[in-house]
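Project standup — Tuesday

K.O.: blocked on the structure for the chain from last sprint. Re-posting the sequence here as requested.
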Amino acid sequence: MLAAPGPADSVTRMPEHVNRHLLLEPHHDGSPTYLADEAPVLGGHVSVRVRTSTRAPATAVWLRTVEDAEPFYTACAVERSDQHTVWWRAEMHVRNPVQRYRFMVVDAEGDYVWLNQAGVWRHDVPDAHDFVVSTFAPAPDWGRDAVVYQIFPDRFARSVAADARPTPGWAKPAGWTDAPIHGGDPDEAIQLYGGDLDGIADHLDHVARVGADTLYLTPCFPAESNHRYNASTFDRIDPLLGGDEAMERLVRAVHARGWHQVGDLTSNHTGDTHEWFLRARADPSSPEHGYYYFAPDGSYDTWKGFSTLPKLDHTNHEMRHRLVEGPDSVVGRWLQPPFEVDGWRIDVANMTGRHADVDVAHDVARAIRRTATQLRPDALVLAEHGHDASGDLDGDGWHGTMNYYGFSFPVWTWLRRPEGQVPSFGLPVGVPRRTGAEAFTVLRWFIARFGWRAVGASWNILGSHDSPRIRTTTGSAERQHVAVGLQFTLPGVPMVFAGDELGLEGVDGEDSRRTMPWGSEAEWDTPTLDVYAALARLRGEHVALRRGGLRWVHLGDDLVVYLREHPEGSVLVAASRGGSPALRLPAADLGLTDGSVLYGAAPPLSGPTVTIPASATPSFAVWAL
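H.V.: unblocked you, prediction finished:
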């Protein structure tokens, strides 16, 4: 059987064959090829399937479920087989709303390995990385099939109307071509360029050219900053952005194209100029005083020590009702006419409802989702979670997360420029350089912890308004193009930070918030824009890239190869960061029947042994199977 301890280890007791050991591993994931229903009925049954190889023969496969915290075993039967593959099947009892399971794969000698979402293991393993099936409704189809385009409104585009708006007293005005203030300068947050919502509406054709169909706007409520995460009210749109009427116009224009729009809400905190907080400080007997964490001396808890961001107390029922519960709440109001946004990205959702010995985070997540989906059954509720979202994604709360640690960091470490220091996001040191096996084992572990379905609804991010730009991280257009290939072909929803498609740079979050260079189109990196557009089309044309499984084929230092499998057609993906030798693969183990090139400068695949070409420079290719 397969050696331990991990999915990239070599096969034992099997005839050697070049570069096929990952293909010989038993495999299951939460995609339609392996799981008959991603949201089965509680108390019912769902079919699960396991693939094994005839060159690593199994004599038995057992399904292990955990029901009411007790393990149960069900024998899997052979459903079908051919000279290369054996398919095993069992009916899984769905006893609990979130059902965990894994497989025991037994060889002729009676030895066994465990197959869970993290891989194949010869030693016993805890339940933490088991497969997960949830009886709760999945994220809406549009949210899982989307290409998301993130816009920082102050820096995207100015409409003609913006010129007539006076600059507020707190702001430091900037010309559109001025460089952003960054590096810890106290004026970072008050440098105002004057982008507005009508400016966004004026440039929707550009968003279409990128291939996106969902807008995500960082906060649009009034605030004394350019980022607006310190809201002064949740009841109206900032007049500097054009006010409520401009939001209505933008959402109508977005919906007229058949697109969707996601808002951004700080459920963890308000600004210190927020109307609730001002009443709370002025009158300790006011209801609003109980909305926050005040100490007897009048001090208050904040987000990470920032006095401008007082933390909300979600054990206060009145505050929760006003903010997240019911149609009249902040969450509910903006999902309804005349605004009708399609969902929310929740800022620092990981901290929302958590404070010292208090943890009502899951209650808050459920309340936000319940409010949203009661008003809009297809609403999306996505969490910002800057590190490990394990345990926060497998219930009836957040549909998914902004997947920094489960996607961004692995890609950054593999494709970071090889020379010099590379700035990081959230770490006290720079981005290290890792091999493909090291980087993508991390991705595999996070898929296991988040759960297959949650990963499919989470956003694959190469950069955002909080991080260095992907061009700065990779140091070249060629490596950025490989990163974009991974972003659009690995499980998850690609989120493009406006300007990445033009090759904009930035060494930190504030520096990354550069204005879009409208009027300077001759200076755009149009080959990079074309890469985004082509990969967006490819993702839209092949359901395997949106809903297919993930089977690793090769994890080398400089080359990674994987399969995205779906009953309607599968694809093979190869990504090289440069310096990778040719790789020979057995066509039969790939299930190869076509091998035509879908993307990239690569030859078709054919013959009993196919070859992924050597690549001296960064490259990315996709083939039909």
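K.O.: great, moving the ticket to review. Confidence is low (pLDDT under 50) at residues 1-19. The longest helix spans residues 526-541.
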